[in-house]
Design goal:
It is built from 6 helices and 8 strands. It is an alpha+beta fold. Strands 3-6-5 form a 3-stranded antiparallel beta sheet. It has a 3-stranded antiparallel beta sheet with strand order 4-7-8. The protein is globular and about 50 Å long.
């Protein structure tokens, strides 16, 4: 979907590649149907928690030649403001190519997420962080916006003054 603004220009919103309904149905547990899962996903705003995951998505075959806008967010500030509405997941909940099982306990609150159990199994403890419904103050939480293009590299479009990288 293309959006145009007289001052800010043009933006294109795109969905990720559609999920395979058959693969999704096979991965679902707890009596969930694909429609239930899609409704759950559509009620959340998703964030990758690592640059590795961001790069994996941007380099996916279907979209690797496209330019991407990357919004980097201060996670501590996001949690401080929206912590009660935050969920963590150990899988890419929108992917069905390598269908990990998913069910009602796939989304866990910060306090109940099995960080250590995942680490002991040699897995990433968190793959996605998501917030219920919306993040209306995203502009206040963002510290950098970049355009990432496969041929032209990365160009910082905007950066919050006084921001220093945290390890």
């Amino acid at each position: 979907v293309e959006l145009r603004h007289p001052e800010h220009g043009r933006a294109v919103l795109r969905d990720q590649r559609p999920m395979s309904e058959g693969a999704l149905a096979r991965a679902l547990e707890d009596g969930l149907e694909p429609e239930d899962w899609l409704r759950t996903l559509n009620a959340k705003v998703f964030f990758w928690v690592s640059r590795k995951r961001v790069d994996g998505l941007r380099n996916a075959r279907a979209i690797r030649a496209l330019s991407h806008t990357l919004i980097e967010v201060d996670t501590a500030a996001l949690l401080a403001r929206h912590g009660r509405r935050v969920w963590l997941t150990p899988i890419n909940t929108g992917a069905t190519r390598f269908s990990a099982p998913r069910g009602r306990d796939t989304f866990q609150r910060l306090s109940g997420h099995p960080f250590e159990a995942r680490r002991r199994k040699g897995r990433e403890p968190v793959v996605e962080l998501c917030v219920d419904r919306a993040v209306p103050d995203i502009a206040e939480l963002a510290f950098r916006v970049s355009e990432v293009h496969p041929a032209r590299g990365t160009k910082v479009i905007w950066e919050r003054r006084g921001r220093t990288e945290r390890a």
